[in-house]
Automatic annotation (TrEMBL):
Signal peptide residues on this chain, from the entry's feature table: none
Keyword entries, A-Z: ATP-binding, Ligase, Lyase, Nucleotide-binding
Cross-referenced PANTHER family: [CITRATE [PRO-3S]-LYASE] LIGASE
Ranges where the Citrate lyase ligase C-terminal domain occurs: 143-323
The encoding gene: citC
Gene3D superfamilies per UniProt: HUPs
GO MF annotations in UniProt: [citrate (pro-3S)-lyase] ligase activity; ATP binding; lyase activity
InterPro entries: Citrate_lyase_ligase, Citrate_lyase_ligase_C, Rossmann-like_a/b/a_fold
Keyword Signal applies: no
Protein's recorded name: [citrate (Pro-3S)-lyase] ligase
Record bears the keyword Iron: no
C-alpha cells in the first residue's frame, strides 16, 4: 500500500468530479451537494476509496471491494474529520447506507434515525440528547403548537401563522432555522421573532439547532434539487422531529403554511404530514396569508430587496426596524448573494 495517494480533488475539475461519480455509481451512490471530496488512488491512479463532506456532514463514502481490509475507511474518516474540525465545527454527522452502520459505530458514531435507504449518525450523541431534553422541558401545556420557521426575514405571512397559533393553542413554541446561508443572519432572525412576539403571552422562542431543517439534515431545503433527494432528506428531518418530541407527542401539533411556490417545501410538507401522522403526532397545514391577492413570501421580500423594489408592505413594522439598521448593499456584496437565495 506504499504506492497509494490521498488528496482532495478540485471540485471545479470536471474530469476529477466525473471520475468520482463513476466510482460511486458502482455502489449505487449519488454524488451531490458537497464542498470537499477526498480520494485515495492506487499505483495505476484509479480511485479505490472516497468520501466527501458538506459542512460538517460526511457523505458519499465508498471503498473498493478489493481494498476493504486495508483500513482505508478509517484513513478517509480521520482525514476528512480533521478538515471539518479545522473549520470550527464541534460535531460531525454521517449519511450512509444501513449496511455500513456498524463500520461508523466502530468509529464512535451513533445512529440518530434510520430510513429504508440511509442511516444518519453523529459523533456527539450527548449533544443531541441535551437538545432533545431542552425541547421536551419546553412543552409545558397540554395543547402546544410547534412552528419551525426560517423567517428570512419575518413577514406578514409568518406573523399570520404566529397569530393563528396563539389564538388556537395554549402554548406556541417557535424554533428558528439556524443556518446562515442567505441574507439575514440567525441572530437577526431571532431578533425579528422576539420583537414580534413580545406582546404575546403564550408564544416563546426556542433555540434552533443542526437537528431541524438545516444543511445537516435537509440541505436540499436551501437549494432546488431532484425529487428523490428532497424526499430522502425530508424523511430524515421529519423522523428526527418525531424522535425529538416522541415522549410528549400527544401534547403537540406541528403547524405549517401551505406552499404554492417552492417545490422543495411542498414536498417536505407532504413527507412531514405522512410521517407525523404515522407516528401519532398532529400535523396542521393552513392557507398562507395573502396581500393584494398574492401569497406573502420571504423569498419575494428578498427578491424585491435585491431588485431595489418596494418590500416594506410585506413585513411588520418590527421587521422593518431591524432591517433598517442593516447596510443591505454591503451585506449582499459581502455574502456574494446578489439576486440569489
Amino acid at each position: 500500500m506504499n504506492n497509494i495517494t490521498t488528496y482532495y480533488i478540485d471540485l471545479e475539475n470536471k474530469i476529477e468530479v466525473n471520475r468520482v461519480k463513476e466510482f460511486l455509481n458502482k455502489f449505487n451512490l449519488d454524488y451531490n451537494l458537497v464542498d470537499a471530496t477526498l480520494v485515495i488512488k492506487n499505483e495505476n491512479q484509479n480511485i479505490i476509496a472516497t468520501c466527501s463532506k458538506l459542512n460538517n456532514v460526511i457523505k458519499c463514502v465508498a471503498v473498493s471491494e478489493n481494498y476493504l481490509n486495508q483500513n482505508l475507511l478509517n484513513k478517509l474518516i480521520t482525514e476528512i474529520s480533521r478538515l471539518i474540525y479545522s473549520q470550527g465545527e464541534k460535531e460531525i454527522f454521517v449519511y450512509t447506507k444501513q449496511k455500513n452502520k456498524y463500520i461508523f459505530e466502530d468509529l464512535n458514531f451513533k445512529s440518530i434515525v434510520t430510513t429504508d435507504n440511509v442511516v444518519f449518525l453523529t459523533n456527539n450523541y450527548d449533544n443531541y440528547l441535551k437538545y432533545k431534553n431542552y425541547l421536551l422541558k419546553s412543552i409545558t401545556a397540554d395543547k402546544t403548537c410547534i412552528l419551525v420557521m426560517n423567517c428570512n426575514p419575518l413577514t406578514h405571512g409568518h406573523a399570520f401563522l404566529i397569530d393563528y397559533a396563539s389564538k388556537n393553542f395554549e402554548k406556541v413554541l417557535i424554533i428558528p432555522v439556524k443556518e446562515d446561508v442567505s441574507l439575514f443572519t440567525y441572530n437577526e432572525r431571532q431578533k425579528m421573532i422576539l420583537t414580534y412576539i413580545k406582546s404575546f403571552k403564550n408564544v416563546d422562542l426556542i433555540n434552533g439547532s443542526n437537528y431541524l431543517v438545516s444543511n445537516v439534515t435537509f440541505p436540499s431545503y436551501f437549494l432546488n434539487n431532484e425529487n428523490e433527494v428532497v424526499l430522502s432528506q425530508a424523511e430524515i428531518d421529519a423522523k428526527i422531529f418525531v424522535n425529538l418530541f416522541e415522549s410528549k407527542k400527544r401534547f403537540i401539533t406541528r403547524l405549517v403554511g401551505n406552499e404554492p411556490f417552492s417545490r422543495t417545501t411542498n414536498l417536505y410538507n407532504k413527507v412531514l404530514d405522512k410521517i407525523l401522522n404515522k407516528n401519532e403526532i398532529s400535523f396542521l397545514e393552513i392557507e398562507r396569508q395573502k396581500i393584494n391577492g398574492e401569497v406573502v413570501s420571504a423569498s419575494q421580500v428578498r427578491k424585491n430587496i435585491y431588485e431595489n423594489k418596494e418590500w416594506n408592505y410585506l413585513v411588520p413594522n418590527t421587521t422593518i426596524k431591524i432591517i433598517s439598521k442593516i447596510n443591505l448593499n454591503k451585506r449582499m456584496i459581502d455574502k456574494n448573494i446578489y439576486k440569489k437565495n
